[in-house]
Amino acid sequence: MAKPVRIALIYGSIREGRFCDTIVRWAAREIDGHEAFELDVIDPSPLFPAPTNAPPNDSAANDLQQRLHRADAFVVATPEYNHSFSAPLKHLLDSIYGVWQAKPVAFISYGGVSGGLRAVEQLRLVFAELHATTIRQVVSFPNAPEQFDKQGHPRDPERASRNLCKLLAQLWWWASALRQARQEEAYASVS
Ligand SMILES: Cc1cc2nc3c(=O)[nH]c(=O)nc-3n(C[C@H](O)[C@H](O)[C@H](O)COP(=O)(O)O)c2cc1C
After folding, report:
1. For residue 145, what is the domain's CATH number?
2. Mean pLDDT of 138-153
3. Is the C-beta atom of 88 inside 6 A of ligand 1?
4. In 3D, which of 120, 104, 101, 128 has the Cα closest to residue 6?
């Protein structure tokens, strides 16, 4: 069997009480069920000062840097805030260098009526600047709290699972192709 694709599943919210927990836990359960993938869940929270305004934690940043560097592919779970993505997610993308290049990025989005799709379109622009490629298939949850039960399971699990499977198939294709290409010639030679 081919070497599994290593996915970093990234939290797009660090808000206390975030709905992102529900989205990420669902996605992690689903991805864990696929032999073709290994999963690492990345929470940007440690990049931020404690409420006492303690300095940012450099060792936490180094830890995230190494884990993101090891990833073959990224899945970003993004909410929508004022028609865009969150400031903490932007801070993660601006703070951690060199880990995104020549790798694919997929999105699971959620929010109000738009299902987070406006945040996704803006993230595509940012990831292009980081030399990453974004996957067409998006799993989107409009009015997200209505789409999950109290235990955090989707109310229409077959549909959610089917959409995520399509996303993962596209992500696997790109991740495998780009991993091979990076091994043959370092992307740094053209970046
Ligand atoms: C300041 C703020 C702005 C928001 N703006 C939008 C928006 O533009 N579009 C939308 O669909 N939902 C919007 N929402 C709803 C959020 O997407 C929703 O509350 C989501 O659960 C936030 O993610 P989180 O709970 O994981 O932090 C907004 C929420 C907040 C707090």
Report:
1. 3.40.50.360
2. 98
3. no
4. 104
